[in-house]
Amino acid sequence: MRKFHFTFRRFYAFLIGTVFFMSGVFKLLDPVGNSLVVEEYLRFFHLGFMTPAALVIGIILSLAEGIVGAALVSGFKRRLTALVTLGLTLFFTAITVALYVVNPNMECGCFGLAIKLTHGQTLLKNIILLVLWLAAFLPLKELGEPRPGRKVAFWVVAVSLFLFLGWNLRSLPLIDFTSFAPGVELFAAAGDDDENPDHREPTFIYEKNGQKGSFSIHRLPDSTWTYVGPDTLERYVLITDNETPVLSFMDAEGEYMDEIAADGKVMTISVYAPESTDASFWDKMEAYRALLVEQGVKPVFLLASVPSRIGGLGIPETIKSCLYYADYKTLITLNRSNGGSVYFDNGLLVRKWSHARQPGLKALTRLGYSDPTDSAVNSATKGRIRFQSFLLYTFALMLLL
Asked: In this predicted model, what pLDDT tens digit does every residue of 47-63 receive, in sequence order?
């Protein structure tokens, strides 16, 4: 009977550990995206002065969740892990109670961008975790000892989480949960020229699930969207009712040039933090621009800035001829890397690269001869397989050693 009871306690601990581990891994999968969620939390709690540290805070909390989850699943340091788990759960529950009461229009970010929960669902999840904790760890004196191999498993998985983080800081997320994922077609390429010939016609901001969209009077959203007001200041990332995104950007005169990205073979290079660049960065971008032109690919540089602020960045004149301006939210959604590249073929988003892994001559030549749809599917599939392999590897270590 005692052994049977202990088995159930270990099973409850495994459930809690799985939730913590997956939560941490999904956030580490997209550190930049997670930092945006952390920024919203900091602003909600009137800690806006800490937003420059949002990325670091997000990484620390994500690693803490992942490591605690690994300890729970593997059974490492059960008493200490139980106390840390309780502290984290109570901390997250207190935050969720405040969000549930105030009900701000923001994502919970519990599982990064992979799984979206309402504030009520998040609160219910945390309450269930607290109940499971009581069943799994009380009394604390009777937790038992793990098998010798579990200690090795825990440390290997902990190191693997750090390596996983390092990969994702240099590369784009293995799975893209944004509206600009490989395989989507830009709104400007969806055949709406007859309905919406002039991008300067009146547009209106609507909001749904924390995301804002700019809609023309000829293409208003359904009733699930909430009207915010007229679009007078900037264009946001747009998700229409058929989930077709708009990549909005303008030239130096303020004219929207969205159609450029949907015309032929285009490589957009998005720089969402141009103030952090220098002359050497733009020298590298000039060589990259020349390579793209040589391969018959139209370069489009997108800056989260305005013309009056780029004078001291050392941008070559050749780049200025294909330079456009977009808002920060659009560019960080399009590509999580500052200086990252996105390849479009007649409006179809084919592939994405981080600044550190921009495609060279061979990759561009291969893209030119490949079917764009197949390339998009292969890119998305390869990322999913790698992520699933990582999960299989870590859980195999925690459960089998």
From this structure: 989 999 999 999 999 99
